[in-house]
Amino acid sequence: MDRAKTKLEGEDAASVIVAATKRIPTTLRLPAYTIVADLLLAEGGIDAREKRFLERLASGLRLSPSRAREAVAAMLVKNQL
């Protein structure tokens, strides 16, 4: 956690995302993206800044735009229940 915090403080978010996504195994990329989307949706919606973050994250994880949209849509349904 300390290393991640130091990295975030010393670098821009985009470079941190790129570095982090390289370490996530392919099989865990969609689940990781879905968890992040779920956390961002916890307050009820995603603002423009969070949307850009999710787009960069999906790109870094090499998720197709359609898979990323499906993950967000699933979390929207989940959070309505």
How large is the share of residues in beta strands?
under 5%
Bin the helical content.
over 70%
Radius of gyration (Å): 13 Å
From the N-terminal CA to the C-terminal CA, the straight-line distance is: 32 Å
Q: What labels would you give this structure?
A:
single chain; about 80 residues; 5 helices
Short description:
79% of the residues lie in helices and 0% in strands. It has helices at 2-10, 13-23, 26-40, 48-60, 65-80.
Description:
The chain is mainly alpha-helical. It has one domain (2-80). Helix content is 79%, strand content 0%. It is built from five helices and no strands.
Which helices and strands appear, and what pairs or packs with what?
Blueprint: H1 2-10, H2 13-23, H3 26-40, H4 48-60, H5 65-80
Helix pairs in contact: 2-4, 3-4, 3-5
